[in-house]
Amino acid sequence: MRLKLILLVLLLVPSSVVASGASKYRHLAPSEVGMIKQAVEDEIYDYGYYGEFYEIGRNVGTPKHWIARVHIYINPVYDAVDQHGEVIYKLMPYGQIYRLFYIEGKDQIKLDGDPQNHFPITQPSHQTVFMDDAEVCRLEQSWMKAVFIVDTTPSLEMIRSAARRQKARTGFSDWEYEHPKHNKPKK
């Protein structure tokens, strides 16, 4: 009986999956979840959105120095065949967004979409206001819930570090582009 069950399961699994031994989906590693949160934070500092997080999320700073603790919902299953994952989080000033991400190599996360395009519905990564409310709630309840931190008055070194990581990740840093005099090598 057990042999018949195994044969039945093998017949139902697509031959490409059996032949390759690979699955279409895999679970994210804890290190990858950390890299996703770092990519989100770096983009916020690089684009200068950190001030927009004042009174967003829970304050883990002081009343005079708001440090936002913001929820992020991460689909714990990564599509290894199509090579993308999914997240939902607040990206001020755009509000809540549904966003794809890509794992490049073993230590790099790239977020889909360009914030300067405002995440329109015509793109894979878009504002959740364009989605069905019940679907957004379902995703948030079924995905992994984590947090990222945004200091609304970061130091210049925090911004520079985020900009360097952002440039390494995407090939472009908005902060470095907007502040060329701050990027000259120290003598």
Helix content: 25-40%
Low-confidence stretches: 3-20
Rg is: 20 Å
* Strands, count: 9
Instruction: Label the overall shape.
Output: globular
Structural class of the helices, strands and pairings?
A: alpha+beta
Mean pLDDT: 88
Helix run count: 6
The tally of structural domains comes to 1
The profile of the biggest β sheet is: 7 strands, antiparallel
Strand content: 25-35%
Question: Could you give the order of the helices and strands?
Answer: HHEHEEEEEEEHEHH
Kindly, what is the distance between the CA atoms of the first and last residues, rounded to a whole number of angstroms?
76 Å
Task: Explain how this protein is built.
- There is one protein chain.
- This protein is an alpha+beta fold.
- The chain has one domain (25-176).
- 35% of the residues lie in helices and 25% in strands.
- The chain is built from six helices and nine strands; from the N terminus they run H-H-E-H-E-E-E-E-E-E-E-H-E-H-H.
- The protein has helices at residues 2-12, 15-20, 30-47, 133-142, 156-170, 174-178; strands at residues 25-27, 58-59, 67-74, 77-79, 85-91, 95-104, 108-111, 126-127, 144-151.
- Strands 2, 3, 5, 6, 7, 8 and 9 form a seven-stranded antiparallel β-sheet that branches.
- A hairpin with a 3-residue loop joins strand 6 and strand 7.
- The chain is globular, with a radius of gyration of 20 Å.
- The model is unreliable at 3-20 (pLDDT under 50).
Helix and strand arrangement:
Layout: H1 2-12, H2 15-20, E1 25-27, H3 30-47, E2 58-59, E3 67-74, E4 77-79, E5 85-91, E6 95-104, E7 108-111, E8 126-127, H4 133-142, E9 144-151, H5 156-170, H6 174-178
Antiparallel strand pairs: 1-4, 2-3, 3-5, 3-9, 5-6, 6-7, 6-8
